[in-house]
Amino acid sequence: METNTANSTRPAVVLLSGGLDSATxxxxxxxxxxxxxxxxxxxxxxxxxxxxxxxxxxxxIGVERHVVTExxxxxxxGSALTAxxxxxxxxxxxxDDSGIPVTYVPAxxxxxxxFALAWAETLGTSDIFIGVNALxxxxxxxxxxxxxxxxxxxxxxxxxxxxxxxxxxRIHAPLIDLSKAEIIRLGMSLGVDYALTHSCYDPDVAGxxxxxxxxxxxxxxxxxxxxxxxxxxxxx
Amino acid sequence: METNTANSTRPAVVLLSGGLDSATxxxxxxxxxxxxxxxxxxxxxxxxxxxxxxxxxxxxIGVERHVVTExxxxxxxGSALTAxxxxxxxxxxxxDDSGIPVTYVPAxxxxxxxFALAWAETLGTSDIFIGVNALxxxxxxxxxxxxxxxxxxxxxxxxxxxxxxxxxxRIHAPLIDLSKAEIIRLGMSLGVDYALTHSCYDPDVAGxxxxxxxxxxxxxxxxxxxxxxxxxxxxx
Lengths: 236, 236
Prior knowledge:
2 copies of one chain form a homodimer.
Chain A: E1 11-15, H1 20-31, E2 35-42, H2 49-61, E3 65-70, H3 108-123, E4 127-129, H4 145-158, H5 160-163, E5 170-172, H6 180-189, H7 214-226
Parallel strand pairs in A: 1-2, 1-4, 2-3, 4-5
């Protein structure tokens, strides 16, 4: 992968779930010449397969360091991804009339970005990458540009560097305006191996994608529109 | 303790460290008639005595539920309270020229408030209490009113209720403009038993306060100005 070296000595914290979007985001971060520090969470999600994918993606793309930290969002419940609720299949289902689905995890991106902020501050850097996407997305409030901008403003007031005016926190969300097909084309151009990624909300015991949850449906649509075959859909 | 029942069916999440400020904040939350849900963190702090104090304070003042959740801020380092650095004694010491001391934990209040936000959203409430204080404080950036207001704005954009315009997140910081002496007088008027609280950054192996760290000095000054004897300073 060709790498722009303009930022090569500058660390950036990258939130890495092991999914298609965060893998592409890590590749963009590397391509822009940052030294990536990848951060993943074990947060009561149902499947360790996500973290295995995150490790494989970090190894393949290359990072300075990969930290997996454990947080317990199950204490609070409130989501099909962390509590004892069923993940919906073959349809876009909301928990209520808001259009926000039951797979939404309360304040998840705020918690993830807060940890990234702590690490960035310790590393002495102001750059954080997150693979949120406001277009072909699941309707979560914390995936929208106005949320990201608001987090940046808060972070400037929360940190030493921001208070001193030395540097402003920058939350890079390079996928925010892209369709899933555009994300896949971007990742392909940067050499991302999507066979290593994991998107399914409800895999079987062997870790295989269900093909019918919201996340699988978005992924399939993205690959179809991009004109690529999803490597995960090929027979092994 | 007299309790205003106007909010009595309304849950509020209260960040509870077991220190003097958070104990007073919990008492204010109860006094205002909220049903408190107390949230404490085991975050790689040096001393379990803080969490024992949090439990004792929660029991004494009364809460609907007390959750202690573990997060590992040691992964990132960067503070005398979580990393292998010395806590300064008998002087206000900064880590650099910024006036922000080495006991500052990067992004700590942002992480704590993010978890509180997740719980508040799950409880269907918009009220969060935090005992930050911008006057007799240790010079941390995330204790200032402009930081708290900025977190509120971000939280409105991060949550279902905020997006739907159903309710705005409110971060209550009832101590923010008070001196330490005023905090102590307020707590005394609400019946807080400060013998249960713990403030020291660097207690001995038996959990006794050092009396000379920044936090102990602020506490001693506060009790002296309030005209009370600190119950922790009395011989057992």
